[in-house]
Amino acid sequence: MTAYRFDDAEGYDRLMSRWSRAAGEALLTWAAPRKAARWLDVGCGTGSFTDLIVETCHPSRVVAIDAEPAQVVYANDRFALREVQVGVADACLLPFESRSFDVVASALVLNFIPDIPRCLSEMARVAAAEGLICGYVWDFAGERSPTWPLREALKCLGYSVPAVPGASQTSRSALRTLLAAAGLRQPATRAFEVKMHFEEFDEFWVSQIAGSPTGKMVGKLGGMQRLDLQAETRSQLCLSADGAFAYLARAHGFMGVA
């Protein structure tokens, strides 16, 4: 199977930043973390959710880690003038002392981690007593991610599309099971409907083909193949007469107490 790597940080930010921020706002409203907390963002990517933490949660400390060096470089540039510590680290072997953080969060990454139970156990280990573990994933199990239209179009045209890692673990029931198995108390999940508006199809298309494994497939297509794919992707969306449209994705938030 084609490896899922997010090594085009700029492209990934163009694709996912505003989606992640919108879902992150819903998570923070629901989870209601306390102010002046010590935060760890596990799998920070380009730093969209980390940025939201800094802007809205009044943290006393923020540390963000990711396994992909290109994403960490991008995030470091983003936070160059702010007190956010960003580094490369393994989510299944967090390089921190136990009980180091009040809130340990994970945005749009949990299903991509090869050993999800180990990751959640590590998140619980580094959380303080009564610390909050929280995060969100796209509902890949229900085919409600922002990349679904492009993936579906590729399938309709007969292309072999790599399965999204851990897709079955993104349902609310699977997430609750994972939280409980990690020993977290008060495991809870919630669905967040995330609507994004686009002025025209090209705005959506350009963001979709940047920064994701599915987008890399498009880059390998010939001119006519790409035009056919654009037409098929367009058919998956409900465009208005002037070409504008909204796409509704769904994220699943999760949280538990260490």
UniProtKB/TrEMBL annotation:
Pfam families named among the record's database cross-references: Methyltransf_11
Molecular function, one GO term: S-adenosylmethionine-dependent methyltransferase activity
Superkingdom of the organism of origin: Bacteria
Methyltransferase type domain mapped to chain residues: 40-133
UniProt cross-references to InterPro entries, sorted A to Z: Methyltransf_11, SAM-dependent_MTases_sf
Name assigned to this protein: Methyltransferase type 11 domain-containing protein
